[in-house]
Amino acid sequence: MSEQVKKPIKITETILRDAHQSLIATRMPTEFMLPIAEKMDKVGYHSVECWGGATFDASLRFLKEDPWDRLRKLRDRFKNTKLQMLFRGQNILGYRPYADDVVDAFVQKSIANGIDIIRIFDCLNDLRNLQEAVNATNRMKQQEGRGHAQVALSYTLGDAYTLEYWTDMAKKIEEMGADSICIKDMAGLLVPYKASELISAMKSATKLPIQLHTHYTSGVAGMTYLKAVEAGVDVIDTAMSPFAMGTSQPATEVMVETFKGTPYDTGFDQNLLAEIADYFRPYRDECLKNGLLNPKVMGVDIKTLLYQVPGGMLSNMVSQLKEQNAEDKYYDVLKEIPRVRKDLGEPPLVTPSSQIVGTQAVFNVLMGERYKMATKETKAVLRGEYGQTVKPMSQEVIDKVIPGETRITCRYADMLENEMDKLEGEMKEWKQQDEDVLSYALFPQVATDFFKYRQAQQEKVDMTQADTKNGAYPV
Predict the structure, then answer these.
(1) For residues 240-256, b (16+ Cβ closer than 10 Å) or e, as one string?
(2) In sequence order, what are the residues at sequence separation of 6 or more whose Cβ sits closer than 8 angstroms to the Cβ of residue 295?
């Protein structure tokens, strides 16, 4: 390689969020993360992703932990490293669109409790659903001097998703006031040479730093990163080797070694990384032994590239067909998925659009007539509640599924009244900190069960007497 300007590739470590979300359903407890945090803080990561996504729901529901408490404890230990979270636009971390005052409060509390970088995405790439979260982050940055708004574009394939589409989006994101852009390839569809093209095109369209996030599901992610880095990407997402590959990210140590001695050299210490890996390895073995880690998710699933369907969506579909004793219809449903996706305006397939398209495709095949029965989510997409799709939706399907209904063309959140006061009123008997109102806003039932559990722990209830099944804890 000729003498080149040094441009060390920056790395976001995902082991404390996306890696264990992808491989063991977000079940890593806080107590396991804390002892290694100080070592991880010495690596020199660009950031450590440790919050958001499904961590919130899983902490409350399965681990009986306060997610806000996890964030504060990690913040105490990461003295030199930025902490990062994933945020679903107006849906925050829940599954419905929230009013702007909830989005504002959530961003404010996330940054106040220790988050530096908020990665914000929308399942339709409708930038209107991201603007409020970006504004709220920028307000915190002005007030507190902390907070970075990263807008993530859900990467997907299809007629509408040309290089012009991506470069046009990059320019719009810069105009929105975002600090950086992430290409979020949740299904592992971005192949190496396409990554070169995409990064080069986006680099010429915007001055913002560009980060690339992918999953190893289809087996090409390491090569994709190599080509993206050569094309000028600024940051890549990787996971420590015990929780890397499969449906997770490429391994941190492997990418560090790949760029060693090149202009992209990270300068990370492999001995330090080896110590961190040694810490996580016994936990991975324990997860394999107790069945939490299924060896199936550790391999390559090339169907992802053949059918452009994320791995999680395929397994969901298989279980739906199994329940109906209709496993012989597998290939019919696979053929139906792209048709439904086209009818609904060709959205990217990511939570929740992937589940909506997949379930509707199953119904269409099992009923023997397309859209004879439509799910309430399909109706909501057709009404425009999820936002604007890249291509127009099928008029024929609209007329069949929601005949005569008025469709929403504005940003759906503009129709929502402020809701923080109402939410606080509903849960005030459980409130011990302002953050509890937000936990309740996102997962009312799950959070209430957790609040009852927390109170029982504080009052030292005899848990053997507790009726945990019904969430009743005698005091």
Answers:
(1) bbbbbbbbbbbbbbebb
(2) 288
